[in-house]
Write a structure and sequence with these properties.
Elements lengths: L12 H10 L12 H5 L6 H13 L7
């Protein structure tokens, strides 16, 4: 995998694996998803949502409602 990821470094390994397997490697991809959709991925928990929400906000983005 040669894709450069800009996901938060503090994400757990299970969450990183879940995102990679689902094809999510760029933060901007999460702006098109709801928090519920992300939580539905195996290995993703509330901490990952908080980290993603903060990272999205830093770029002026947010999860879809």
């Amino acid at each position: 995998m040669d894709q450069i990821s800009d996901l938060p470094a503090k994400l757990s390994k299970p969450a990183k694996r879940a995102f990679t397997q689902a094809g999510y490697v760029k933060l901007e991809q999460f702006a098109g998803l709801t928090e519920a959709e992300v939580l539905a991925l195996h290995g993703v928990g509330p901490t990952a949502i908080v980290l993603l929400r903060q990272a999205l906000a830093e770029k002026g983005l947010a999860f879809r409602e």
